[in-house]
Amino acid sequence: MIMSDVIDSLVENELAIGRFYRLCAERFPSLKEFWSNLADQEEDHGHWIRQLKAEIREGGAAYKMEMVKPIAVQSSISYVNEQVARLQKGDLSIVNALSIAANIEQSAFESRIFEAFSGYSSTAKKLIADLKQALLVHNELVDRKWQEYRHYK
Question: Pseudo-torsion of CA 105, 42, 72, 141, nearest 10°?
Fold first, then answer.
């Protein structure tokens, strides 16, 4: 897989997660704002990664292929799409959805995809810093909400 395809897969993963959150907002109206905000932010993450791809083409950034395994990204996309299907069938409770979201966000943060990018331009450096911060914030937000709901059935 070439670098461009791997980066496109990272974007696809962010958008898949956003679709899951958007569907959660529809399915669980009591947390509609929470889920909708997460979905919007996932779309932002995808946009930032696209911008980083453009920065790479222009020489303002680099991408280290060895940092992110393409199979892991594809596996994540498949997993999220499976959860979307389960949600569409009504197979997930709000606690299940929050648990899945917590796992997704924890995995995203632990994968440290932001470390696969090196920024040379001020734009690329800011995008990488913003992506790192956003992943950390999402991880904390979702974990906090899951902790709040995890004892409910």
Answer: 0
d(CA 122, CA 104): 29
Tokens 């569907």, residue?
Answer: 23
Q: Nearest-CA neighbor of 8 among 59, 74, 64, 66?
A: 74
Report CA torsion sign: 126, 104, 34, 38.
Answer: positive
Q: Give me the percent of the chain exceeding a pLDDT of 90.
A: 78
Q: How far apart are CA 11 and CA 45, in angstroms?
A: 8
Contact 75, 116 (CB under 8 A): no
The tokens for 60 are 């303002």
User: For residue 55, is pLDDT > 60?
Assistant: yes
47 within 8 A of 134, measured Cβ to Cβ: no
Residue of higher predicted confidence among 110 and 134: 134
Q: What letter does residue 152 receive in the DSSP assignment?
A: -
Calpha distance 93→121 (Å, rounded): 44
Instruction: Dig out the tokens for 49 from the structure.
Output: 């990664």
3-state secondary structure of 117: strand
